[in-house]
């Protein structure tokens, strides 16, 4: 294949694209905005995300991914086609594309993804297991027979896995990620202050003053919302302690899910993991104090990967540049014809 080699992390919240030889070239929200009458695309990515909850009736804003899998195939294809064309321009040869899926998706979901990728302009496609990509992208060595524990906190889900010798040995997923944390902030503000805030405002609060561990110094910010009763706009003050209290339960669910995963892990692997610790990836891992809270709860070392939101894409990038890695881990590319009617 003479086309570009690309890795696409099609996340519930963000789509990140890696091009071999260039690195990460695109990182945009997984959102598309359409004109409701003509079906024409009005905006894509971060620009479309800004329209969410603000769109007039004539504009339809679609999030085509849900909980790590495709929920709207047509819109996913449109989005992918747009990005692939943007990156490849008018090249004659179609690109080879690696994509990731969480470990516990069905064969049907994997096929849907391969179909979508090849229908969107890829010449051939290959699926890599997301936890493996996350670990490799976090620059952790996986060649020795030691087990590695990774938790990827994304938008829709937190995916937990133990990888050993390049294979996912144990995996689990909970539907608690950044979105559920944002919703918890919205609920808290409504309950404690009788004020409604949008999901974008809640996300901003999480990123700026959110904390999984109480900071020594309390920070306060002014925030805009509307009165629950009457609907008048209001400005109000909210502190890091408020946001900590709002998200505490969700954050504890994540700790609990990791603990439950360790409970079903064979003893030999558990002792490896306690010596190497937990690797945190995904954008949600950037919440202040997440490592410290998890380390306290799980009584183990926790390492927040560098650029956690890019680990999966960087891991696919590593695979694209290492033929041996692809071969040793049983990953290979299939063309559209190969995918049609094949069993996984
Ligand atoms: P996905 O793979 O599901 O698309 P990502 O790994 O891109 O998700 O992570 C997206 C989540 O990370 C969102 O919920 C977003 O709000 C959250 N996030 C991104 N940056 C930060 C930050 N600085 N602090 C807290 N959360 C963050
Ligand atoms: Mg992700």
Structure notes:
This protein has 344 residues and is an alpha+beta fold. The chain folds into 3 domains: 5-132 and 311-339, Nucleotidyltransferase, domain 5 (2-Layer Sandwich), CATH 3.30.420.40; 140-176 and 252-307, ATPase, nucleotide binding domain (Nucleotidyltransferase, domain 5), CATH 3.30.420; 178-247, Actin, Chain A, domain 4, CATH 3.90.640.10. The protein is 39% helix and 27% strand. It has 12 helices and 19 strands. The protein has helices spanning 46-51, 73-88, 107-119, 130-137, 178-193, 199-209, 240-263, 267-276, 290-298, 311-321, 323-328, 336-339, and strands spanning 5-10, 14-19, 23-29, 32-35, 41-44, 59-62, 65-66, 69-70, 96-101, 124-129, 148-153, 158-164, 167-174, 195-196, 220-227, 233-239, 278-281, 302-304, 334-335. A 6-stranded mixed β-sheet has the order 3-2-1-9-10-19, sandwiched between helices. Helix 3 links the parallel strand 9 (96-101) and strand 10. The longest helix has 24 residues, at 240-263. The protein is flat. The model has no long low-confidence stretch (mean pLDDT 93). The structure holds adenosine-5'-diphosphate and magnesium ion (MG).
Distance between the termini: 23 Å
Identify the strand order in the major beta sheet.
3-2-1-9-10-19
CATH superfamily of the largest domain: ATPase, nucleotide binding domain
Number of strands: 19
Unique bound compounds: adenosine-5'-diphosphate, magnesium ion
Number of helices: 12
CATH architecture of the largest domain: 2-Layer Sandwich
| Main beta-sheet annotation | 6 strands, mixed
- Name of the CATH first level of the largest domain: Alpha Beta
Gross morphology = flat
Q: Quick check: average pLDDT? A: 93
Q: What is the radius of gyration?
A: 21 Å
Helix/strand class = alpha+beta
**Helical amount:** 25-40%
């Amino acid at each position: 294949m003479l086309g570009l080699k690309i890795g696409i992390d099609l996340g519930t919240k963000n789509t990140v694209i890696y091009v071999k030889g260039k690195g990460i070239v695109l990182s945009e929200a997984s959102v598309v905005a359409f004109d409701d009458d003509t079906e024409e695309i009005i905006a894509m990515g971060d620009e479309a995300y800004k329209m969410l909850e603000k769109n007039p009736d004539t504009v339809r804003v679609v999030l085509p991914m849900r909980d790590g899998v495709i929920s709207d195939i047509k819109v996913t294809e449109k989005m992918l086609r747009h990005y692939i064309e943007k990156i490849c321009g008018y090249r004659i040869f179609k690109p080879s594309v690696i994509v990731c899926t969480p470990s516990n998706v069905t064969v049907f979901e994997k096929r849907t993804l391969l179909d979508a990728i090849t229908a969107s302009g890829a010449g051939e496609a290959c699926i890599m297991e997301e936890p493996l990509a996350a670990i490799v992208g976090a620059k952790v060595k996986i060649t020795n027979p030691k087990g590695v524990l990774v938790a990827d906190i994304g938008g829709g889900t937190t995916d937990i896995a133990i990888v050993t010798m390049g294979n996912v040995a144990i995996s689990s997923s909970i539907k608690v990620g950044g979105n559920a944390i944002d919703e918890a902030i919205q609920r808290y503000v409504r309950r404690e202050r009788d004020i409604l805030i949008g999901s974008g405002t809640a996300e901003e609060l999480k990123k700026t003053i959110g904390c999984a561990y109480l900071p020594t110094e309390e920070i306060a910010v002014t925030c805009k919302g509307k009165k629950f009763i009457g609907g008048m706009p209001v400005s109000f003050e909210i502190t890091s302690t408020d946001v900590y209290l709002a998200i505490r339960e969700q954050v504890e669910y994540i700790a609990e899910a990791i603990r439950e995963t360790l409970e079903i892990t064979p003893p030999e692997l558990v002792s490896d993991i306690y010596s190497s610790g937990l690797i945190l990836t995904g954008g949600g891992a950037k919440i202040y104090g997440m490592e410290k809270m998890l380390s306290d709860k799980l009584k183990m070392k926790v390492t927040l990967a560098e650029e956690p939101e890019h680990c999966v894409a960087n891991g696919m990038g590593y695979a694209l540049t290492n033929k041996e890695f692809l071969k040793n881990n049983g990953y290979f590319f299939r063309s559209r014809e190969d995918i049609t009617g094949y069993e996984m």
